[in-house]
Amino acid sequence: MLAFIHGKQAITSLRHFMAGKSEADIAAEFTRLEHIEATETEGITALPGAIALLSHLNKAGIPWAIVTSGSMPVARARHKIAGLPAPEVFVTAERVKRGKPEPDAYLLGAQLLGLAPQECVVVEDAPAGVLSGLAAGCHVIAVNAPADTPRLNEVDLVLHQSGANYCDQTAKWRCYYSVKHLIMI
């Protein structure tokens, strides 16, 4: 089940697993789950090095965005509890018609940053997000993505280390600083 839902909009997953149920039933379940995810945030933390990386981007004047399959209430709550810096652009499920693995979310993120997708780097851990970033034409860095992620061989960089500190990956990141902007998961 996790392989299906990871990185996808909750409503998409609910429609899949609640096949045959009415849209009203699905919407009610979505509202219930959204409330739980937005309020039960114990254990939510930033990935190691994420805050340092985003702070570095801010100091360097490199715009970045958060592009997530989560709804705005869930994304805002988790962003706040993780202590991440505020992004210039925040793209959530409500802002796109088609969620990941379709390219819409990353295309919107690039557009809102005023960039062509090929000027952006997507950092993703979910197979749906990797596919979305590639479909959008962005550079893609896969972080702890499952080994069976489709098209993983097409990404620009794969980081497998559990708990890897992104700022310790300087040599690997250096080639991506020539790309002007970063879109985060």
From TrEMBL:
Keywords: Hydrolase, Magnesium, Metal-binding. One of its GO terms (molecular function) is sn-glycerol 3-phosphatase activity. Its EC number is 3.1.3.-. Gene3D superfamilies: HAD superfamily/HAD-like. It is an enzyme of class 3 (hydrolase). SUPFAM superfamilies: HAD-like (SSF56784). NCBIfam families: HAD-SF-IA-v3, PRK11587.1. This is Putative phosphatase/phosphohexomutase. It comes from Escherichia coli. The gene is yfbT.
